[in-house]
Amino acid sequence: MGHEHHHGAAIGHARTRHRWRLAAALALVGAFLGVELAVGLLSGSLALLSDAGHMAADAVTLVTALVATRVAGRSEPTGRRTYGSYRAEVFASGFAVLVMLGVAVSIVSEAVERLDRTAVEIATGPMMVVGGIGLCVNIAAMLLLRSGASESLNVKGAYLEVVADTAGSVGVVVAAALVAATGMALWDTLVAVAIGCFVVVRAVGLGRQVWDVLAQHAPAGIDPRAVSADLASIEGVQEVHDVHLWTLTSGMHVATVHLVTDDLARGHAVLDRARQLLRDRHGIAHATLQVEPADHTGCHELGW
């Protein structure tokens, strides 16, 4: 049996490299949230209120992401969590999806309800100014999180929430301009609906990635058939079976494989080559490999 551990590097980037980015983005969003909410209520702009809702969702998502990085990196004294708490970051991403969907549903519901009301007065001046400031805040937060989004699903959840809010701020400015130019408050409602639909699309995309991890699907970009074929090509390997590939958390791909060899005396060399192949060619740093003699039949007795 052979295995290799590289958990420290994966969790290290989540705890140190990106935590300060999450904290800085949270400070920016939190500082502006109250201002936007107050002006949204005073101006009567649904688009501005929807953007404030986005910012509130941003704040919640960022707090959750920060907490998840701490939980994922804590020690495990009980010994029962044999994979540690790394999945906390994935659960935080799933929470971000739920928050985004909740905000989108509330925005669209309010927009539909407003269509049945009489004319709504909207103060477009304050709406445009606050929308513009909110856009700058969101762009700054988005730039802070962008580099980490490609490495951590947790950071990606927070990043996509901020991206959606950035689009919302653009929508607020556009809605203010259209209402001021035409005098039709309907533009404010339509922009709010468009923002809600945009958020749903982003949330569904992230939700699929979260589901793939929680359902233990093969990591994106890794073909199990190609992995099996590469392992079967190793000198001394007669058969490859029970290949299982999944992602524990962002940057931590895991594999378990059974290798049937023609000569157990060469098992050590087979293990070394298989580990190197999985690490270098497929990006799988943690692999548990079982070497079996050709006449071993126990594994084939499993019914699942």
UniProtKB/TrEMBL annotation:
Its main location: membrane. GO terms for cellular component: plasma membrane. It is found in: Membrane. One of its GO terms (molecular function) is zinc ion transmembrane transporter activity. It is a multi-pass membrane protein. Residues 223-293 form the Cation efflux protein cytoplasmic domain. Residues 23-214 form the Cation efflux protein transmembrane domain. The chain crosses the membrane at residues 22-49, 55-73, 85-107, 127-145, 157-179, 185-204. InterPro entries: Cation_efflux (IPR002524), Cation_efflux_CTD (IPR027470), Cation_efflux_CTD_sf (IPR036837), Cation_efflux_TM (IPR058533), Cation_efflux_TMD_sf (IPR027469), CDF/SLC30A (IPR050681). It comes from the Bacteria. Keywords: Ion transport, Membrane, Transmembrane, Transmembrane helix, Transport. PANTHER family: CATION EFFLUX PROTEIN/ ZINC TRANSPORTER (PTHR11562), RE54080P-RELATED (PTHR11562:SF17). Belongs to the cation diffusion facilitator (CDF) transporter (TC 2.A.4) family. SLC30A subfamily. This is Cobalt-zinc-cadmium efflux system protein.
